[in-house]
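REQUEST ID: PR-0412
SUBMITTED BY: lab tech R.K.
PRIORITY: routine
TASK: structure prediction, single protein chain
INPUT:
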Amino acid sequence: MSAFIVSPETMQRCVSALHHRHDPCAQADQLGRELFKLNAQAVAHRYGKCDEIPEESDWTWRVDCPSLYYDCPDDLGIACDQLKALHCLRYQLTEGDEVPATSLYGQIKRRIQELEGHIVTRLPEYKAAAWDSQTPPCVEANATR
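STATUS: complete
OUTPUT:
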C-alpha cells in the first residue's frame, strides 16, 4: 500500500462532509488543519520524514455553503463526492496504529457510515427491494385475545 497527502480538493470535500452546519465556519479551517496533520502523520509513519509533504499552512479550509454540509445533502451527487473523498482520506490514514486510534479518525468512520446509509436508502434499487413483514407469533396470539 502506498500513502500520500490527499489533494486540497479532496481535503476540502472531507472538511465539508465533517463540518457541522451549526459550528462557526472558522472551525472548518481548524478541522482541515487537524485532518491534514493526521494525513501527514500517516504518510510519515509509512515513509519516515519526507520533505515532499506540503506545508499545511499553505492551504485554507472553508465551508462555502453551510446548509449543504453535515446534514446529509439532498443532492446525491454532493453526498457521493463527500463519501468518496472520505473513503480516500480514510484509506490514506490507515498507516500505523496511532492515526486510526484517534477520535477524529473515528469521526471520519462514523460520517462515512452515515453517508453510505443516506445514499443507499435513496437508491431506486433499495426502495424496490423486498422488506420482510412477517408478524411475530406472539403478536398474532395476543391479537386474538
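NOTES: The mean pLDDT is 83.
REVIEWED BY: pending
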